[in-house]
Amino acid sequence: MPLKRHVWCGVDGGRTQPDRRATFRAFTDEPTSGAPNLKRIVVTGAGGQIGSWLVPKLREIYGDTRVLATDVRPLGAEVAESGPCQVLDATDAKAVGQAVLRHRADAIYHLAAILSAVGELDPGLAWTLNMTSLEAVLEVAREQRCAIFTPSSIGVFGPSTPKDPTPQDTLMRPTTMYGITKVAGELLCDYYHHHHGVDTRGVRLPGLISYGAGPGGGTTDWAVDIFRHAVRSGRYTCFLSADTALDMMYMPDAIDAVIGIMEADPSRLTHRNAFNVTAMQLTPEALAGEIKKHLPGFEISYSVDPARQVIADSWPDRIDDSAARNEWGWAPQFDMAAMTKDMLEHLEPQPSQEG
Ligand code: SER
Question: pLDDT > 90: what percent of the chain?
């Protein structure tokens, strides 16, 4: 097995480009000492909110050269300079197959997807992109015997689902195209596991809060926007009503969940593609109150967007994640207070908000 690997960067449609190692530090194929299972990984949608956190963490654990970051758009310098990357349309099964083959990957983290609010603006596109890309990576995983992580979401639930607590196994009749693709995706992953023996795994992520790359058009985006506006202008107009409760999670916990389920002992997993996971339940009013403890001048007002309010109202107030806790030891670290403190420490404060 060669110890040096080419770095495929800017590859389009599976067509390889010249080795660009000269522009980066030399990537070697040496295993990271102590890396569990020495995985070789391809990440789709690496430039998004989750990917921008997941890729550095995977590289830290498994080794920089072992994690190929891909996205439909060129990735930023930070990702490109720390390991291999490539432009890749995840709906193009042939290109995905070639990328996985060249990288000799044994695991795919498939993050490329259209979220709930943007999905309702073009439901046909949401269906096509979310399902075509999932089918593509599952087929590649079947052919090349890779494990697959696919994020599901609280979006799988609908108005007829019990809201508090929402059980692990319950009614799932979502009313968004995003949610429909996530339910279909969970079932498709189950199918590939049962019929083709693919090691498919996933968690139903709640709204994710992070600094850095922002979310791409979800209903839970307010919980990120509120921080950006709080530090920039000291005020935020929320598109959901003050008392809208939704499950949320700080990104470091979400990354732990993603890697935790992939590293879990498969013999303990009953719900392999669809674990409820949550860390906190937030309303805009409660989070604004927490932010005010740090930025006393912060003000929140409300201008409800009916389209996104309907989606939020169709989702749970509090999901029950005991199956994840029992089957693979899921345990989030950040509650609302710890997350808020950390977010504000990492966002640039404006002088007028500092005291
Ligand atoms: N954060 C997603 C959204 O709002 C839900 O998983 O669409």
Answer: 85
Query: Distance from the CA of 139 to the center of ligand 1, in angstroms?
Result: 26
How far is the C-alpha of 37 from the C-alpha of 131, rounded, in Å? 30
Residue 181, pLDDT above cutoff 60? yes
Q: What tens digit of pLDDT does each residue of 104-125 get?
A: 999 999 999 999 999 999 999 9
| CA distance linking residue 97 with residue 92, whole number of Å | 9
> Which ligand 1 atom is nearest residue 176's CA?
7
Please tell me which residue in 178, 192, 211, 236 is annotated as part of the active site.
Answer: 178
117 CA closest ligand 1 atom index: 7
Ligand 1, CB within 6 Å, residue ranges:
115-116, 153-155, 178, 205, 207, 218-220
**Separation of CA 216 and ligand 1 centre (Å):** 9
pLDDT tens digits, 18-74: 232 322 233 334 444 445 556 999 999 999 999 999 999 999 999 999 999 999 999
Measured from the Cα of 115, ligand 1's closest atom is: 7
Q: pTM of this prediction? A: 0.88
Looking at residue 282, its pLDDT comes to 98
CB 239 within 8 A of CB 224: no
191 tagged catalytic: no
Please count the other Cβ atoms lying within 10 Å of the Cβ belonging to residue 328: 22
What spacing in Å lies between the alpha carbon of 29 and ligand 1's midpoint? 36
Ligand 1 atom 2: the closest Cα is on which residue?
218
Mean pLDDT, rounded, of the chain:
89
Nearest alpha carbon to residue 295 among 353, 209, 217, 348: 353
Distance from residue 316's CA to the centre of ligand 1 (Å): 12
